[in-house]
Amino acid sequence: MVVAIRIPVRIVVLVLVVPVRIAWDALVVAGRLLTDSVLRPLGRALLWLGRTVLVLPLVALWRYVVVPAGKGLGLLGHVLVVVPLGLLYRYVLTPAGHALGWVARAVGAGLAWLYARVLAPAGRGIGRFLKGAGILLAALGTGVFAVVARLLHHLLVVPAQWLYARVLTPAGRAVAWLVGAVVAGIGAVLYWTARVLLVLPARALWHWVLVPVGRVLAVVARETGTALVHAWRVAGYVSRAVWRFLAAVFRWVVVEPVRWAYRTVLTPVGHVLRDAVLRPAAEVARAVGRAARQALAGARESVRQVRADLRRALFGEPRRPEPVDRRELADRETRTLGSSTTALTKD
């Protein structure tokens, strides 16, 4: 059965998967080309544009506007708020707090004296009185409670114990046995009814229908998955061969004629244009540029000489600095500051 299922399934899956694999390979190549040629440069351009339009202005605004304004506001708040509050705390609130503390200490001392001299002795006396009254009431209550408890025991507890032991316990046991027997009978009837009507048909359905069908479906699913994997791999080889064939056709139909036209037609024409037109034009342009630079240099030199002549005509010849004799003394005398004595022996 496995062999009979495997071959048709693989054939059908291969026929269905080959177009999907070819389209998938085409989409992969197109996605890579789109990513490398469009999306990545576009992302870089958007990143540069966002940095130029948003980040740099925001940084400049933060650095040159917000930070100086914040520092100025902080200084203004310190001068207008912190310093006055510090002065208020130091010269108003602190003396007022000291005065209130002194008043509170005085009031506390008065209350402590009142408590120690008046309230504490009065409280001790009242406590002793209440303690004696409590002892008396406790003794009286104990006696009354003992009498009431003995009466309740003989009037209620003893009759209740006899009723529970002689009447309620046998009656409860009989009712429990009767209820257990009825429930057991009803349970046995329901058990056999459910077993005959539900369990045995469900077991037969599971063993003779569902298990064989499940095994067949499991075999089909396993073989289908294996066929999909195998077909996907084979479709990859087929897709590669198809795209290579199409690439070869495109090369021989489009690329090679274009290359031949470029080599045999465009390249010689370009060389002729370069040698006959572009190079002479470049030589002429370089000669014209050299002549223009020489003319500009001569004009600048002429303007410089005219400015020098005008300056000499208006202001005269510039005064040349007098030459300074920097030669050493001929004799071996010590050099002084214009006197006959040295710096150590002058008056």
UniProtKB/TrEMBL annotation:
What superkingdom heads the lineage? Bacteria
Biased-composition ranges for Polar residues?
A: 336-347
In residue numbers, the region (Disordered) covers 317-347
Keyword check for Repeat: no
The UniProt record lists the keyword Lyase: no
Question: Where does the record place Basic and acidic residues bias?
Answer: 317-335
Give the residue spans that cross the bilayer: 12-34, 46-66, 73-93, 99-120, 132-152, 172-192
Q: Which UniProt keywords apply?
A: Membrane, Transmembrane, Transmembrane helix
State the name under which the record lists this protein: Uncharacterized protein
Q: Could you tell me which species this protein originates from?
A: Streptomyces shenzhenensis
